[in-house]
Amino acid sequence: MGLRIFGRRGQTVPAPAEQKASAAGRVAALAYGSGRAVWSPRDVSSLTRAGFIANPVGFRAVRLIAEAAAAVPVICQDHARRFDTHPVIELLRRPNVMVGKAELFEALYGQILLTGDGYLEAVGQGQKGLPGELHVLRSDRMVIVPGDDGWPVAYEYSVGGRKHRFDMTGSPDPICHIRSFHPMDDHYGLSPLQAAGVAVDVHNAASQWSKGLLDNAARPSGAIVYKGADGQGLLSPEQYERLVDEMETHHQGARNAGRPMLLEGGLDWKPMGFSPADMEFRETKQAAAREISIAFGVPPMLMGIPGDATYANYQEAHRAFYRLTVLPLVSRVSAAVAWWLSEHLGAEIDLKPDLDQIPALAEERDQHWRRVSEAAFLTDAEKRAMLGLPPLAEG
Questions:
Q1: Do residues 299 and 322 both lie within one domain?
Q2: Does residue 170 share a domain with residue 260?
Q3: Domain tally for the chain?
Q4: Fewer CB within a 10 Å sphere, N or C end of the chain?
């Protein structure tokens, strides 16, 4: 092939005589050390186990966002027209022999939500220079190696003590790195799970405390007090064994629920209840669940968390969920993947969510189309531009 259309960071090849680079990038590179791996400052594995695998609220929030985002239809177009068939569409329809489009993007969105970073790997050679397959790599196994200018020169992927190095100095790039905004890290993203870390700990601790109550380990339901005739409070071993056997046989289990207790020989029953402070664990757990939902951008109403009336109804919460959480995530990831694949393809294409195919936004779509269609002062070309449609072909 002759000249490359796309190079590193949008530069064309052959490169101009004057190389441009960020002055701040060099400072960041010196801070980490050129050529050395930049390790993530967070323990991704522990956060994932505590906030996703062992926490139902975090699990449901991630699955809800990832599944909804992966199900959003994506439009492939360039500056002139929208494509019904295109090599990029075929590649995304079946990224590899193991998974389809929905599974690939669900895994990619899940990695971004859990770790703040998502990595796509290009494998083989396909149509028109595109990769033959796309694979999602685990973020906890990937390490960035920065160069002298602060930009990544390589990615190291570690599995079982073995490492594979992806060279990022050539073109096209073998790795597409999508990161969430992190104000204190130059190379890695910040995940919602990190922001919700304290709420996750509180929610898990409240669940463990509740489990302890169910196991009767936190607080007994009552106590049997013995007062002897001479003022002693001790039972003989035979009396103690007989009392325990009597309680286990006649006053425990569902079959003996509500059965009256006959006490003799100075025995007295003292019931034990929960103090108001002990009863607050339920409210604490619900508050922690709301904080986890808010960190991920999921309305608590959609999570089934009681006591939240931020939205007037379920439909409004559903629409806000798509507008504020799902669509921004899909738009950002689609744009990054489109630019990465454009570098492979040698021609610029654009991927963006098809808002007309999202049922949750149907009412907004109808109102918008009605307003534009009734605007008599607009031409047909201007109306199509306002609706995000490509211009009609001449003739």
A1: yes
A2: no
A3: 3
A4: C
Supply the Cα-derived Rg of the chain in whole angstroms. 30
Considering Cα of 113, then 116, then 119, then 120, what sign does the dihedral take? Answer: positive
At 13, list the tokens: 């090849």
- pLDDT string in tens for the chain (395-residue length): 444 444 444 444 444 445 556 666 555 555 555 555 554 445 788 889 999 999 999 999 999 999 999 999 999 998 888 898 999 999 999 999 999 999 999 999 999 999 999 999 999 998 889 999 999 999 999 999 999 888 899 999 999 889 999 999 988 999 999 999 999 998 999 999 999 988 998 898 888 877 776 665 445 566 667 666 665 667 677 777 877 777 777 666 656 555 666 666 666 666 666 555 555 677 888 899 999 999 999 998 888 887 666 667 888 888 899 999 999 999 999 999 999 999 999 999 999 999 888 888 888 778 877 888 888 888 888 888 787 777 776 64
| Same domain for 369 and 337 | no
How far is it, in rounded angstroms, from Cα 123 to Cα 199?
A: 40
126 with 262, same domain?
no
Do 349 and 372 fall into the same domain?
no
SS3 call for 7: coil
Half-sphere exposure of 219 (CA within 13 A, CB side): 11
Q: Which of 238, 273, 308 is the last residue of a domain?
A: 273
Residue 266, in any domain of the structure = yes
Does residue 281 fall inside a structural domain? no
Long-range contacts at 108-112 (CB < 8 A, ≥ 24 apart)? 108/136, 108/178, 108/333, 109/65, 109/66, 109/69, 109/70, 109/329, 109/333, 110/62, 110/63, 110/66, 111/136, 111/138, 111/139, 112/178, 112/180, 112/189, 112/191, 112/329, 112/333
Q: Please state the φ and ψ torsions of residue 323, each to the nearest 5 degrees.
A: -70, -40
**Same domain membership, residue 133 and residue 102:** yes
Asked if 141 and 238 sit in the same domain, the reply is no
Interatomic CA distance for residues 63 and 53, integer angstroms: 11
- Specify whether 60 is located in the same domain as 190: yes
Q: How many helices (H) and strands (E) does the chain have?
A: 14, 10
Q: Is residue 208 part of a domain?
A: no
The answer to whether the beta carbons of residues 47 and 193 sit under 8 Å apart is yes
> What is the spatial distance between Cα 280 and Cα 52, in angstroms, rounded to a whole number?
25
- Chain center to CA of 168: 27
Q: Does 1 fall in a domain?
A: no
